[in-house]
Amino acid sequence: MNRLRITFIVPELNLSGGLRVVSIYAQLLAERGHQVMVVSPAGRKPSIKQYLKSIIHWKGYTFQSDFDAAYFNSQDYELKIIEPHRSAVEQDLPDADFVIATWWETAEWISDFSPRKGRKVYFIQGYEIFSELMIDRVKATYYLPFHQICVAKWLVDVMINEFESLSIDLVSNSVNMELFNAEKRNKQVTPTIGFLFSEMKYKGVGVALKVIQKLKTSIPNLRVLSFGSKKPINIELPDYIELYVNPSQNDIQYIYSNCDVWLCCSLSEGFGLTILEAMACRTPAVSTKSGGPEDIITDNENGFLCDVNDVDSLVTASKNILCLQSSDWQDFSHKAYSHARRYSWHDATGLFEQSLINSK
């Protein structure tokens, strides 16, 4: 196979799941012998207003930059940081065979780039309609004549049915079984549930907290584990929640492996990587029917699916797993583990690579 020159453009390096996926593809494509570059703007600097508010701690405000290059510390591909923080322009990029947008803004940036910068590809990991002010701009990017690679079936359906996409492939995410793995185990002595903490509204943490509060009334000794990239700012967590902030990968594996059920209450979920990682650690999952999780969970087999915002159904489903006899829980656990290990990142990278080649 000919060596391909591939450029990924990201909106800003951070510790989001979507950027972790980009870093994995950059590394594995480089290991396959391709010339890979990741281009990112530098971290944002505070505006004068933000700076002053932070200095005086106005209403507790502290400016926080999300910039973090931890996922992109490989020596096998090139990382280019654009200083200062700004949109990427054509002169920032090398000539290449493919230039890959990874977020709607990056799709806007590359829309007018010359063919020398590469065949334009849109790597879609979510339906990015999060702000009323940006809806028209976001939707416009889905009409761009780019080859599209989507991580979930529901995204493929949206792109075809709503935006009449003509060049599109499904390449599902996988899980790193070397990082996320666990030996066959029993239920925890103390019933334990886990969830991802994020203050982004679409992640549904408010719903998760209602579910957990109701579970605590019937299972008073319920242990609750969680992790997230930031400390809570606008959401007050109960004292009984054990929150790990910006944990190491080993700590995340520990959290997954010490849960009896993993809870996801998202309103919309592009893929649901934490669900698959939890399953790789032999933890069944309960999730809303929010998109990506519907590709991962088989109802009443490796977990349960519930309607979005349906607190009572989420409580019932979680309790069903938490209260299983040990042998029945192990059956759920084994099926969760088997689903996670059936498809590797190397498999996914082969499909991603083939999608690029076929798009020529």
Keywords:
about 350 residues, about 15% strand, Rossmann fold, 2 domains, single chain, six-stranded parallel sheet, seven-stranded parallel sheet, globular, 12 helices, alpha/beta
Q: Which helices and strands appear, and what pairs or packs with what?
A:
Layout: E1 5-9, H1 17-31, E2 35-41, H2 48-56, E3 78-82, E4 98-101, H3 104-110, E5 119-124, H4 135-142, E6 147-150, H5 153-163, E7 168-170, E8 192-196, H6 205-218, E9 223-228, E10 241-245, H7 249-257, E11 261-264, H8 273-280, E12 285-288, H9 293-296, E13 303-306, H10 311-322, H11 326-340, H12 345-358
Parallel strand pairs: 1-2, 1-4, 2-3, 4-5, 5-6, 6-7, 8-9, 8-11, 9-10, 11-12, 12-13
Account of the protein in words:
The protein is of the alpha/beta class and 360 residues long. The protein folds into 2 domains: 5-174 and 344-358, Glycogen Phosphorylase B (Rossmann fold, 3-Layer(aba) Sandwich), CATH 3.40.50.2000; 192-340, 3-Layer(aba) Sandwich (Rossmann fold). The chain has 12 helices and 13 strands. The chain has helices spanning 17-31, 48-56, 104-110, 135-142, 153-163, 205-218, 249-257, 273-280, 293-296, 311-322, 326-340, 345-358; strands spanning 5-9, 35-41, 78-82, 98-101, 119-124, 147-150, 168-170, 192-196, 223-228, 241-245, 261-264, 285-288, 303-306. A 7-stranded parallel β-sheet has the order 3-2-1-4-5-6-7, sandwiched between helices. Strands 10-9-8-11-12-13 form a 6-stranded parallel β-sheet, with helices on both faces. Strand 8, helix 6 (205-218) and strand 9 (223-228) form a beta-alpha-beta unit. The longest helix has 15 residues, at 17-31. The two termini are 14 Å apart.
